[in-house]
Amino acid sequence: MKIKESIFITSSSALEQCPPPIKAEFAFIGRSNVGKSSLINMLTGRKNLAKTSSKPGKTQLINHFEIDNTWYLVDLPGYGWSKVSKQKKADWGKMIEEYLLKRENLECLFVLIDSRLPPQNIDYEFITWLGEKGIPFIMVFTKTDKQSKSKFQSIKAKHLKRLKTDWVDLPVLFESSAIDQSGKKELLKFVQEVLVDLKK
Ligand code: GTP
Ligand code: MG
């Protein structure tokens, strides 16, 4: 699948402000600065569709993009950003939790993980919660251009070990780089397969 048209629809600070849930939705989440907004730009082939920054905490609202008049891509704020007040953290937590638990057209959540880091508790606690709540997700290792293949393979092995301790069926895993565009074909193929299944 190739994306032809991507349109920014709206930024919402609460579930009830989101566009009507009438199109299949795929949302991106993960720690601040992991590359969620950059991956959305890479997949859509648009440099500045989603706002990115080298400083964590850039995306602060639920951002909807309509793709080819058929489905939504959603850019979410990151978690685990330390330079933020307790109140703001609690507000974001509430906003994202409500969105994840109640957004009826959310077909799959893409949980982004920095490919340079060994397993982090914050990510694993989050996916455990997704499992408990029955929210479908896949994992995407980002920024693979930043290190050698062999270094990444050893990090990935650590993740697989950690995943196997918690999960009977392992989540689907992807690798990506917003710089060299790796993972684009695979991720879009995944979306297309979900969309085709929905039509059946
Ligand atoms: P928040 O909105 O703050 O939660 O961050 P985010 O997850 O949306 O990250 P964003 O896409 O803004 O990227 C953060 C930084 O990482 C930026 O400086 C990007 O240029 C950089 N970056 C993102 N993806 C990649 C990648 O695949 N490779 C490299 N080398 N840098 C990347
Ligand atoms: Mg962002």
Number of separate strands:
7
**Strand content of the residues, in percent?**
15-25%
Distinct compounds present: guanosine-5'-triphosphate, magnesium ion
With strands numbered from the N-terminus, the spatial order across the biggest sheet is 1-3-4-2-5-6-7
Overall geometry: globular
- Radius of gyration, in angstroms, nearest whole number: 16 Å
Mean pLDDT: 95
Structural class: alpha/beta
SS element count, helices: 5
Secondary-structure element pattern, one letter each: EEHEEHEHEHEH
How many angstroms separate the termini? 18 Å
Helix content: 25-40%
- Stretches with pLDDT under 50, minimum 5 residues: none
Quick one: biggest sheet?
A: 7 strands, mixed
Summary tags:
7 strands, globular, binds magnesium ion
In a few lines, what is going on in this structure?
The protein has 200 residues and is of the alpha/beta class.
